[in-house]
Amino acid sequence: MELPGASLQKACRLLVVFCVLHLSAVLFYYLAGSSMRSLQGNPDPSPRGLAPLRRETPPTLRPANVSKPCPDPSPLLVGLLRIEFSQTVNMKKVEEENPNVRKGGRYTPKDCIALQKVAIIIPFRNRDEHLKYWLYYLHPILQRQQLDYGIYVINQGGDETFNRAKLLNVGFVEALKEYDYNCFVFSDVDLIPMDDRNTYKCYEQPRHLSVSMDKFGFRLPYNQYFGGVSALSKVQFEKINGFPNNYWGWGGEDDDIYNRLVFKGMGISRPDANIGKCRMIHHNRDNKNEPNPQRFNKIAHTKETMNSDGLNSLSYSVLNTERFPLYTKITVEVGSPKS
Predict the structure, then answer these.
(1) What is the arrangement of strands in the sheet containing 212-213, beginning at the earlier edge strand?
(2) Which residues are catalytic?
(3) Model pTM score
(4) Bridge partners, 1 (sequence order)
(5) Which of 19, 157, 189, 260 lies in the 20 to 30 Å Cα band around 85?
(6) Cβ 281 vs Cβ 190: under 8 Å
(7) What is the bridge-based pairing of β-strands 317-323 and 328-333?
(8) CA–CA distance, 119 with 186 (Å, rounded to integer)
(9) Which of 181, 172, 187, 171 is nearest to 148 (CA)?
(10) Which pLDDT does position 167 carry in this prediction?
(11) What does the pLDDT look like over 299-329, one tens digit per residue?
(12) Is there a contact between 311 and 238 (Cβ–Cβ < 8 Å)?
């Protein structure tokens, strides 16, 4: 005799067995169907899915969209740099380490449009070893700053007294013959920035870049100092009629330039004292670059002379133009103090 409820228990067991078999069959057919779809491929992939790895653009190639401007500041900057001059610079090695620099010292970012087109002008004579250090350090810095730039070494030919400011005027004129630069950085060949956040570009006001030289104990020698490395836009430079042409020998032209800026209603912008640190390659004073005994008298008369002495009175002749892998060297004749 069956116990009460035995029939109900049997029915429940059969129902459970049936459900298990049904679920197993459903799971089998689902997995089989998924396998077939994987073999056949998915004709309508989700647009939110990750692209296949093989389709990624290699980082060394220019992306398809290069219409975007470069970010400001550049994300490539590293900050404080170690600068020293104890090792000899091998120029072949420097060229190999800067494969993206084109002949003549031209560089353009590959993955974005530079915010400025910068011509870097270096007044020069008999400083070949200094130039090697400058190129060694500055090319990587300028590329990390994502500038569209060119390097112009303006070499004073002959053996007359050196004229730094006039060579800078020449560099401005000659660089514009090659490219539509809108910013000009004027740099002595013996000054190297110690921080790549000190960007070699132009600002709303003329920029003094070499704020803290080791030569001066990493302090500004006086508030009006505008020597070493400076940046002016094309508009700013033309507004002051360029630099003076009549400062022969060492000293005075930087103060004259400062006066020109003030008389045209402009101010001086500077980076932070730490970011603006730079090192000078120590050397003896060059021959034919003795202190200019007339500099103080000339500085006192900037306001009277600036409209007639500058770009509008510039006279020179190009003797030779050489395009090396890392820079363009333009040798010029600029006359003499007596001319």
Answers:
(1) 191-193, 277-280, 212-213
(2) 188, 190, 250, 253-254, 280, 283, 285
(3) 0.80
(4) none
(5) 157
(6) yes
(7) antiparallel
(8) 8
(9) 181
(10) 98
(11) 999 999 999 999 999 999 999 999 999 999 9
(12) yes
Hey, what are 87's tokens? 């090792």
Do 145 and 321 meet the contact criterion of CB atoms below 8 Å apart? no
